Amino acid sequence: MSLTKEEKNRYSRQIQLNEIGVDGQEKLKKAKVLVIGAGGLGCPVLQYLAAAGIGAIGVIDFDLVEESNLHRQILFNSSLIGINKAIAAKEQLEKLNPFVTITAYPKKLDYQNAVSLFKDYDLIIDGTDNFATRYLVNDASLLAGKPFVYGAIHRFEGQVAVFNYKNGPTYRCLFPTPPKANTIPNCSESGVLGVLPGIIGTYQANEALKMILGIGETLSGKLMLINTQNNSTTLIKVDRIDAAIKKQLAMSISPDNYIIDCETTASVREITVEELKEKLASNEAIQFIDVRELNELPQIAELSGLKIPSKQISDSYAKISKNKTVVIYCQTGKRSKRAVSFLQEELDFNTLWNLQGGIESWLNSESNKVNLIKETI
Amino acid sequence: MKINLKYFGLVSEIAKTNEEFLDIGKQASSEDLSRLLEEKYNNLYEVDYRMAINKTLINKSVELAENDTVAILPPFSGG
Asked: What domain count does chain A have?
């Protein structure tokens, strides 16, 4: 795959580098890279890879360009609002570099299309914004035998790594299973300054280019942590865990493995402190389950019942009533929400309520404050 | 035994700092440290974090040594 005169001129500044040269540029032209998501991370990845002359670039995204994307997804502009991101990206990238071929997939990556799509490319770039798709990208890359460049952000921090490359670790060697629902800000964005995904996405593009060119050291077996508030970077060594990978390869890709986290707890029924008091006042029979650790304080007499620390819930649920009203609580309502979600989903409990805000809300409620004052007097 | 803790992402929000030094007694494993931190920071229990000691991710509990640097790493999901 030789380069035309125009291409040699276009890429002259990188061809000038001894490590790249015409040979390197031809490697880039031969390369096929698939970018998952044309969002905060995907946009800078796409821009730099297209500009660098990666011969074939695929981009998959089902979402539309929104006005609130434009502060960080600077591949797009105001005239593209409402257009599918994969299609808008193709349009923009073809203007940036007519010498590369862009394929747009305006659809959702799912367990049915991932592996076969990945097989058409040499390298996958993960620019997703949720855990379900990240684990899908990891597992499908492993099954298709393709390396992938990982990037993720949280507020002012980013993580970058290369997975499944030359017998290196996979994402599951770092984080074996998706976090439980509602523990890490996920579906609703927690806010981001536009430059952060720009920086992290650019690091991802840099890793991709080094891998294709065969130069430098990659972030395979290393997790790079970047904090843009204090400008610190940290490299953490991550080992490959063969047992985990074997298990992963044996597991087929099925829809159950990639449920978007926020969908699972949406159905957890919650009861407020005031509603609970009404139930107590009407003498309704309620079974209380305290899922805090055994030594956690305070203990509330009105809420006394079974004590099952949340870590033990999967072994000790036998005493929980399946027909009485059951109220589950912890200190703030989060561990108990997770417990309710687990009992409902896995064990078909359906008379459960999560005490919203937990013991803290109970203590803060107006009528309880009065009681507390009386007790201290 | 003094150790240096480095917090990332959600963990630094829970601890309200990126870094701290803790005296964790004469002898302690990484598992003991987990328990200690989860007592100190109630909501930490909610996070599926991993630990790295002196910049190497650990896959089983190990004994800590004086001046070890322990990073507490939560997963990030944003993009």
From this structure: 2
Q: Which residues of A are catalytic?
A: 187, 330
Q: How far does B71 lie from chain A, in Å, by closest CA?
A: 9
Which of A263, A280, A313 is the endpoint of a domain? A263
Gap from A252 CA to chain B (nearest CA, Å): 23
Euclidean distance between CA atoms A309 and A289, whole angstroms:
9
> Residue A54: which region, alpha, beta or left (left: phi > 0; alpha: psi -120 to 50)?
beta
Q: Note the CATH number of domain B2-73.
A: 3.10.20.30
Interface contact flag, A40 B78, Cβ < 8 Å: yes
ipTM above 0.90, yes or no: yes
Residue A16 is assigned to a structural domain of this protein: no
- A177 pLDDT band, cuts 50/70/90, is confident
Question: How far is residue A158 from each of residues A42, A74, A291, measured CA to CA in Å?
Answer: 14, 19, 33
pLDDT, tens digit (0-9, with 9 covering 90-100), for B25-77: 889 999 999 999 999 998 898 899 999 999 999 999 999 999 999 999 999 98
